[in-house]
Amino acid sequence: MTTTVEQITRVYRIERVELESWIAHRWIRPAETAQGLVFDEVDEARIALIHELREDLKVDDEALDLVLSLLDQLYATRRVLRTLTQAVSGLPEPVRAQIRDRLRPEGG
Amino acid sequence: MFVDNITLRYRSDPRREPTARSDFLMRDPYDILGVAKDADIKEIKKAYRKLARQHHPDLHPGDRASEDRFKEVSSAYDFLSDPDRKAKYDRGEIDAAGSPKAQRRFYRDFAEAAGGERYADPSASFHAFEDIDILSEMFRGARRDRRHQRGADLSERIEVDFLDAVNGAERELVLPTGKHVKMRIPAGAVDGQVMRLKGQGLPGPGGGSSGDLLLELSIRPHPKFTRAGNDIVSELPITLSEAVLGGRVEVATVDGSVNLTIPKGSNTGTRLRVRGKGALLADGHRGDHYVTLKVVLPNPPDDDLVRLVEGWAPSHPYRVRD
Domain A1-58 has what CATH class? Predict the structure, then answer.
């Protein structure tokens, strides 16, 4: 399901210029179509997050750049970790047991 | 417009109609926010902001329970941030019945899935799995034909004699597998240095080559010698007469014994250099050996010496302390 700029600004009650500035900052990266910009659910969830960070948590725009960059790195790392976990779970049990042993803290 | 098709509603959307159906009775919103019953909107907002920072699910992706806590906190805040509702609740006219909200999907629900890749930091180029630096270690040398994977490396710690490390040596080693191998300890090896024995790790699955054995050297201290870079330092006890009158004494070094001249009038703490008798270097040269002199009086005390000093001392005072 996709959403247009008009719908976003109405539902999330943000100004159009505000949304445009988020897009200019590349905080939000909607798809460009013949009908204009469209937002998918990932974009929407991110818009809700940015809105909360700015309005509720009082993160200013400069800090927001940093916060989003750190969050994006965190999620990238977690994606990799997830892929790694899936790869490990597909290994034979003796190998997984070896990995478990290696992950156990010293003396634990 | 297709507004109604949007499943995700931002929670402070003022157009959201309070639903008549109350699925659950909320705990006291003041309790949830941890503020007093007479707290004003400023205090409520402050408390909410603090709790939201602590519990926002997108800021705590690894904490599954954060979502419920955040929802509770934001419902309480939502409830109290409407002055009309707050006043009614304060007067006891309404209870804190929460209105069930449209299922909210947080950013973290997408961010870790493939969809989140769009927002990966472009400057960090996280596209390829192997690009994450902490993982690249894991794939070093392993991106070969998967049917012939290289075996895993093994690591061990071994104790090495001080003199073997200084001079270099060849020693036989019994591996955990029971295999005997010759290893060459390089001259000048230092504590913590890691040696790689090629092909002595685990065998590769599917006929791949074996991994390596990584040996971390732990160098045993020597009773007499200490290493300082390429130099060796030791203490040399000398007699009173060797100190006062000078003499020649034999000194042990890591490269055999040498005769060393003690200059007349040497003292405890005097440092003398023996050139070229230190640790062996890669180019075949050696560092230096330094001896620190230590004057030792006869033990038990010699009667003649005592008498001599009794006669000498009163007329020859000298300061050794500040």
Answer: mainly alpha
